[in-house]
Write a structure and sequence with these properties.
Keywords (chain B): Aminoacyl-tRNA synthetase, ATP-binding, Cytoplasm, Ligase, Magnesium, Metal-binding, Nucleotide-binding, Protein biosynthesis
Subunit structure (chain B): Tetramer of two alpha and two beta subunits.
Oligomer: heterodimer
Protein name (chain B): Phenylalanine--tRNA ligase alpha subunit
Subcellular location (chain B): Cytoplasm
Mean pLDDT of chain A: 92
Order of helices and strands of chain B: HHHHHEEHHEEHEEHEEEEHEHH
Largest sheet of chain B: 8 strands, mixed
Low-confidence stretches of chain A: none
Largest interface: A-B, 101 and 95 residues
Helix content of chain B: 25-40%
Domain Aminoacyl-transfer RNA synthetases class-II family profile (chain B): 110-352
Distance between the termini of chain B: 81 Å
Low-confidence stretches of chain B: none
């Protein structure tokens, strides 16, 4: 909310500077987002008198003026305003001054060949109003040579963020009250002057929706003149508040709202017919609002209507057709109390925001209907003339005062600050609370935010000074702090650093994807799709980490990167029990582009292959504590992967711990990225927790005797998985064979069609005694026999 | 000169003059071989009288040793020369680049979350988590934001069309605060947690992204007041930024889930156009930066979480993790956090060995 210092001082007697006031506002919870000093904007402009005005020799619409600036010789100024004439006083911008409205810096220049030393300014050019038909005309007594900022008495403007719990401060008066309580001056409440009413109000006013509109007061003013603008002092305040002056009648209601936080409405009586009633809208009923948009209403919404239809979306926005215009002569004033919740619901349903709604949905002062109406009447009569009728009242506002049983010791218990009981009482009283001897506190009805004792603690503490709270150490347990990470957190932290140590860069990608990309990786799962995404590219929650990383890899490639090795640890989003989500912790890896660049030693650049993906999968699973020796390499990595160059890693046939491999060319195409690209996805929730605690490792001492190695070259069916052969070999003697490793795979010349040659190095570890030749032969025979069961024959 | 002395001196001279290993070997055979001249002299010892032998043996032995040593020395010299020649042919141009291992990195957000976990572990806080796809009861209602509460509308919430079994609207959590509710409901009190994680708001410009990271702090116990909140935030920020001159300014504010509510500003100093935290924000060349939202947990929230607000009270706070990372490590564009640009990650990412520890300081130097 914006307001000028001058306006604030109308409600607050104070000598405090703008800076002090801003500091106090911050201190008591009204955050100052900015202070604007219009004097700065108006520097370089001064009061000047036009001495002579002559036609420009080369331009019909221009005049050449000589202007007295109060010092030195008169200046020659070229001016296009029709009202410029000798003898008038106006505002001259000197070279160097910056025109507030357009940021243009004035310079000495020649206009159509005639030297001009400045500019006579219009109201709009100085951002003092909308008027732009001519230059500003100052009164005869304006002192020539005075800076215009000084003459205009430009006042600093505060921009304050009012928190939603304080609608009472959405008017300057409320802010003044708070500042006075904080010791910044004396609060000067503005009393409504006595209205001399003449006659009964001719319009019947009713509330047929006492729930939505508990109170509806009104009065007619006859014979107003809405053709003149509102008075200068009012315009000035409205402009400072960022409110454009519109017409005297509209300005008066805006003024009431900004000064007192009290929205009201003015109807053109000529446009109304019959009783004016607060009622529920009928389903499908429409109204054209002041913003010239038509809204379709439903029966939960409160409206103000007459015999002809809806004239006002209650508490939110008036109707286009019954508003005041320059030809309006008789008006009906409306001041009502609307149910805050209903206003909020209606506003959200209609997607319609307004200053009135902001105040009504937070709660206006229910005890300020009569005074508000009197103030508005007074403003209108003083500006537009006219004769007010008596007030008609329908319903009653909920003004019953809330009481809170307060314990002043709670201030220290909750706020951590000792404030004497006298001071607490004084603070609450200055904020218009009534404090009983037994500390029963009666709240002013405008303070909808006070629900209980904690709120009163906040009132006391914020006025006393919340920054005065002393730091108090949290009690801590004796000794060294205990470890806190859960097993999953430990795994994630370890994995993150293991992956980075392996040369992968951690990325964080969006949790949401374009629906098509999410569908591509959904594997039949029902996706979570946003109702109101910020864009179509951020619509469906990711069922896999790979698409986000693929897109990142593509962006890198598009920017000329040779390759990308990215990983991410995050969640995949699935459907859980009872409509909740099931969010699975996951690690994704994408390897794209060059694995190694071309080099002097290695020649061409190398691309990644599926074994690189396997290496990451295995190493990271090991880092995560998975029993990697027991993992089975199986198929079904998913349609997004190359069917022949991808696999799953499983612990048992069902439990998939990871998938890895080359991305399917169709997937690459869908993501518009050049291949080959490898990916890994590790499902952290599938990794079994390590059993047992303790730190001691199992007992071990290195064997005294040296291990021996034996090589076996087998001819096997071309489609036999090498892993199966190795498994068979290893299983031949679980005690003696401690390792079996494929060191050569070959097919082609010298190997029969349909076969391949696989060479395995077997490591045998003797125990207490060295192996005898017979023992080694027996082991070898067993290896060959077991391999034969897989269709392998020993090569001659 | 005796014959023997003459023989020895000739032999040594010829060994010295030998041109190569082959010539040297010939000399070895000539002098020390089975038929060699010195070997022949050795054989004469057997036929001598003991007296003669006693006199001659040391001389002959000495000549033999001298010749043998000279041959060995000359041979080693030849070998050394040979090796030198060989090595000279094996020269490598070591200005050529060695094979490079890719350098991986940890994302600044993860690094900062690890730092937070480390600092708060020392203060007795554990790390709690909760779902990112939340229901509106946990995200709003239980945090004292009823359906009609204006603050709800201020959250720019992403909604799903779905409802859970209790009829609650599903949404993307707008803050980490629902973890407060879940943690209190699960663990009861007393409780000290931080809850870092992803949060979502429908907002996108230079300083806002629709997804970002927050960390929530919650302490529920007996006799916890605003002073403890202030101390905790001061202690945390001093440890996080590793500076003792962190100054906080508490400002009253409003959050539906706390009462009283406090916004926390931190003093900063202009250092070459950059805002560096530290010092009193009111001092010349300084200013205040809004950093955290906090307050005493609203008793309604404690009630919603199933605890007795007359028995338990405490504080909560929330702060942007990305923001903390930017302030500490100097990034200025939030959007780059979520772009996965290899160059940015190389530049702003952290070594895997920068594991935050209290003993080494939680921060990683530039």
């Amino acid at each position: 909310m914006k307001f000028s210092l001058e306006w604030l001082k109308y409600f607050l007697e104070t000598d405090a500077s703008a800076a002090d006031i801003a500091a106090a506002l911050n201190r008591i919870g009204h955050e100052v987002e900015g202070i604007e000093d219009p004097a700065e904007k108006l520097s370089g402009f001064r009061v000047a008198k036009v001495l002579t005005a002559a036609k420009h020799p080369d331009a019909d619409k221009l005049q050449v003026l000589t202007v007295d600036t109060g010092e030195g010789d008169p200046l020659q100024v070229v001016c296009g305003a029709p009202n410029a004439r000798a003898g008038m006083k106006g505002v001259l911008g000197l070279p160097g001054a910056v025109v507030p409205a357009n940021g243009m810096e004035l310079r000495k220049s020649a206009i159509r060949g005639v030297e001009s030393n400045g500019m006579m300014c219009s109201v709009r050019e100085l951002e003092l109003g909308e008027e732009h038909d001519g230059i500003i005309e100052l009164p005869e007594d304006a002192p020539v040579g005075q800076t215009f900022a000084e003459y205009h008495d430009a006042s600093p403007v505060f921009d304050v963020a009012i928190t939603p719990n304080r609608p009472d401060c959405m008017g300057v008066q409320g802010i003044a009250r708070d500042l006075a309580a904080a010791g910044l001056g004396t609060f000067k409440p503005v009393e409504a002057s006595e209205i001399v009413a003449s006659g009964e109000c001719p319009v019947e006013i009713r509330t047929d929706d006492p729930e939505g509109c508990p109170a509806f007061y009104g009065r007619v003013i006859r014979g107003v003149d809405n053709t003149k603008p509102s008075p200068e002092w009012m315009q000035r305040r409205l402009i400072a508040a960022g409110q454009r002056p519109i017409s005297a009648l509209v300005d008066a209601t805006n003024y009431l709202m900004l000064a007192f936080g009290r929205p009201a409405h003015v109807y053109d009586l000529a446009k109304l017919s019959g009783a004016v009633v607060a009622r529920r809208a009928k389903d499908g009923e429409t109204v054209e609002a002041l913003n010239e948009k038509t809204y379709t209403l439903d029966d939960t919404m409160t409206v103000i209507a007459d015999d002809n239809g809806v004239h006002d979306i209650a508490g939110i926005m008036g109707g286009e057709h019954s508003g005041a215009t320059t030809s309006t002569t008789d008006v009906l004033l409306e001041i009502a109390y609307f149910d805050p919740e209903r206003i909020g619901v209606t506003g959200r349903k209609l997607g319609l925001a307004s200053d009135a709604r902001t105040r009504f949905e937070r709660g206006v002062d229910p005890a300020f209907l009569d005074d508000g109406l009197a103030l508005l009447t007074d403003l209108i009569v003083k500006t537009c003339g006219g004769t007010p009728t008596e007030v008609v009242r329908a319903g009653t506002p909920p003004t019953e005062a809330k009481t809170v049983k307060f314990d002043p010791e709670l201030t220290e218990r909750l706020g951590g600050i000792a404030v004497s009981q006298d001071e607490q009482r004084a603070i609450l009283t200055s904020l218009d609370f009534t404090v009983g001897d037994d500390w029963t506190v009666t709240c002013p009805p405008r303070r909808h935010d006070i629900e209980g004792p904690a709120d009163l603690v906040e009132e006391v503490v914020r006025i006393h000074g919340i920054d005065n709270v002393e730091s108090t150490p949290l009690p801590r347990r004796p000794g060294v702090a205990l470890p806190t990470a859960t097993p999953l957190q430990q795994v994630e932290r370890k994995l993150r650093r293991a992956a980075a140590a392996r040369g992968l860069n951690e990325a964080i990608t969006w949790s949401f994807l374009p629906t098509a990309e999410a569908e591509h990786f959904a594997d039949g799962a029902e996706l979570w799709v946003l109702d109101n995404p910020i864009s179509e590219d951020m619509k469906a929650m990711r069922p896999s980490l790979i698409p986000g990383l693929l897109s990142a890899a593509k962006r890198n490639a598009d920017r000329g990167a040779d390759g990308a090795r990215l990983f991410e640890i995050g969640r995949r989003y699935f459907r859980g029990k009872d409509g909740a989500s099931d969010e699975k912790p996951t690690l994704g890896v994408v390897l794209s582009g060059e694995k190694t660049p071309r080099g002097w030693a290695s020649g061409k650049a190398a691309k990644f292959d599926a074994y690189d993906a396997k290496a990451e999968a295995m190493a990271l699973l090991e880092a995560a504590g998975a029993p990697v020796a027991n993992l089975m390499v199986m198929g079904e990595a998913g349609d997004q992967f190359h069917p022949g160059q991808s696999a799953t890693l499983r612990l048992g046939p069902k439990n998939v711990l990871a998938r890895f491999g080359a991305i399917h060319p169709n997937t690459l195409k869908a993501f518009d990225i050049d291949g080959p690209v490898m990916a890994v996805e590790i499902f952290l929730d599938a990794i079994p927790a390590k059993k047992g605690g303790g730190f001691a490792r199992s007992a071990y001492s290195p064997p005294a005797l040296q291990a021996i190695t034996r090589d076996f070259a087998f001819l096997v069916p071309a489609d036999l998985a090498a892993g199966d052969l190795v498994k068979a070999v290893r299983g031949s003697d679980k005690k003696a064979i401690v390792d079996a490793r494929v060191f050569d795979v070959f097919a082609g010349q010298g190997v029969p069609e349909g076969k391949k040659s696989v060479a395995v190095e077997v490591v045998l570890q003797p125990g207490e005694k060295s192996f005898t030749d017979e023992e080694i032969k027996a082991i070898s025979d067993n290896i060959v026999k077991n391999a034969a069961k897989q269709g392998a024959e020993l090569r001659g | 000169m005796t014959d023997l002395a003459q023989l020895q001196s000739d032999a040594l001279a010829r060994i010295e003059a030998a041109d190569d290993a082959e010539a040297l070997e010939a000399l070895r055979i000539e002098f020390l071989g089975k038929q060699g001249s010195i070997s022949a002299l050795m054989k004469t010892l057997g036929k001598m009288t003991p007296e003669e032998r006693q006199e001659q043996a040391p001389k002959i032995q000495g000549a033999r040793t001298a010749v043998a040593d000279a041959i060995t020395a000359r041979k080693e010299a030849f070998e050394a020369e040979e090796l030198e020649r060989k090595l000279a042919t094996e020269r490598l141009d070591l200005t050529l680049p060695a094979p490079e291992a890719p350098k991986g990195s940890v994302h600044p957000v993860s690094q900062v979350m690890d730092e937070l976990a480390e600092i708060f572990a020392d203060l007795g806080f554990s790390v709690a988590t909760g779902p990112e796809i939340e229901d509106d009861w946990h995200n709003f209602t239980a945090l004292n934001m009823a359906e009609t509460h204006p603050a709800r509308a201020m959250h720019d919430t992403f909604y799903f069309p779905d409802r859970d079994a209790d009829g609650n609207r599903m949404l993307l959590r707008t803050h980490t605060s629902p973890v407060q509710i879940r943690s209190m409901m699960k663990q009861g009190a007393p409780i000290r947690i931080i809850a870092p994680g992803r949060v979502y708001r429908s907002d996108s410009d230079a300083t806002h992204t629709p997804m970002f990271h927050q960390v929530e702090g919650l302490v529920i116990d007996k006799d916890i007041n605003l002073g403890h909140l202030k101390w905790t935030l001061e202690t945390f920020l001093k440890a996080f930024f590793e500076r003792d001159d962190i100054v906080l300014r508490l400002r009253p504010s409003y959050f539906p889930f706390t009462e009283p509510s406090v916004e926390v500003d931190v003093g900063w100093k202009d250092v070459g156009g950059r805002r560096v935290l530290g010092g009193d924000g009111d001092a010349p060349g300084h200013g205040w930066m809004e950093l955290l939202g906090s307050g005493m947990v609203n008793r309604r929230v404690i009630e919603f979480a199933g605890l007795d607000p007359d028995e338990w009270q405490g504080f909560a706070f929330g702060v942007g993790v990305d923001r903390l990372a930017m302030l500490k490590y100097g990034m200025d564009d939030l959007r780059a956090f979520f772009d996965g640009d290899q160059r940015w990650l190389d530049h702003y990412g952290f070594s895997p060995f920068d594991q935050p520890t209290l003993s080494a300081g939680v921060g990683a130097g530039a």
